[in-house]
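Hi all, posting the design record for the shared folder.

TITLE: backbone redesign
STEP: 1 of 1
STRUCTURE INPUT:
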């Protein structure tokens, strides 16, 4: 009887987005979750002005520093394949569209960062239904009504529209595809640390690629400068990329009229963790060391 009562409580908590739930082989499992990716995103349907105000206060006073404390990036940047140099040998986790096509279940839902910002009167005009979960995470979103189930074709269409709008494709820093966000530089909890606080991108984002400009082709039009979400490109006679700032998102390459920009895998790139749980344990250990 006590076990059934406990399961009922856990089920209620999972429906409220307070814990994570999976269902496999007629067995239900409950797990605690971090604030991000977790409690924050799971509040996407219930967030109101009051909660948005508290989230902002938490971010400004504590969480922004907390996010970068471990020096282990929680997200990896994944460009769409069309911007990557043609002869590059890619692993499956580099191939965003292919990974989406292979996903068992896909859920799409509103960006909690932009939704929070809009409720605080600080929002932008970027598209809002742009965040995805896959597999068991997608099932959790769909069953709880946090997001809606979509096909791979619709997900790719949203990804392509997000790219046109100038959003950065970023997912949990693991080889396993669990989620993809399409991040803006003004509202995204991770990118704000880079664009508004001037912090090292590595605290938040694993940049596996970098933009390379062909000096023989570049005409110095400057289109890529406004397109770059983190101000990594400057203009002299031709465009110049700061690899220390570059996220390798491919947004500059996708608008270059001369096809002078391509993405290349960084020689000093970091391989994502095998699974999300390994990344979370590394972040925990990094925080522990930083506090010693």
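Okay, here is what came back for every position:
SEQUENCE:
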């Amino acid at each position: 009887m006590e076990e059934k009562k406990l399961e009922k409580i856990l089920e209620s908590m999972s429906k409220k987005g307070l814990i994570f739930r999976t269902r496999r082989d007629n067995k239900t499992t409950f797990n605690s979750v971090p604030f991000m990716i977790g409690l924050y995103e799971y509040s996407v349907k219930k967030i109101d002005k009051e909660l948005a105000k508290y989230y902002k206060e938490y971010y400004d006073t504590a969480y922004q520093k907390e996010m970068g404390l471990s020096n282990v990036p929680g997200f990896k940047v994944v460009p769409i394949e069309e911007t990557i140099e043609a002869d590059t040998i890619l692993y499956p986790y580099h191939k965003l569209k292919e990974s989406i096509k292979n996903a068992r279940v896909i859920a799409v839902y509103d960006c909690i960062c932009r939704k929070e910002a809009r409720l605080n009167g600080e929002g932008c005009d970027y598209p809002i239904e742009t965040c995805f979960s896959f597999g068991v995470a997608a099932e959790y979103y769909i069953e709880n009504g946090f997001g809606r189930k979509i096909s791979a074709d619709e997900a790719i269409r949203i990804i392509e529209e997000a790219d046109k709008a100038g959003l950065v494709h970023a997912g949990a820093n693991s080889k396993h595809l669990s989620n993809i966000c399409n991040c803006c530089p003004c509202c995204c909890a991770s990118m704000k640390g880079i664009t508004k606080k001037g912090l090292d991108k590595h605290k938040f984002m694993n940049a596996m690629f970098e933009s390379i400009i062909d000096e023989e082709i570049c005409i110095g039009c400057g289109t890529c400068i406004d397109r770059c979400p983190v101000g990594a490109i400057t203009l002299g006679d031709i465009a110049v990329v700061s690899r220390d700032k570059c996220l390798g998102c491919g947004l500059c390459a996708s608008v270059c009229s001369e096809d002078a920009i391509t993405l290349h895998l960084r020689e000093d790139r970091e391989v994502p963790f095998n699974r999300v749980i390994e990344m979370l344990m590394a972040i925990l250990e990094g925080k522990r060391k930083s506090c010693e």
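COMMENT: The chain has two domains: 33-78+87-208+272-290, 209-264.
Let me know if anyone wants the other runs.
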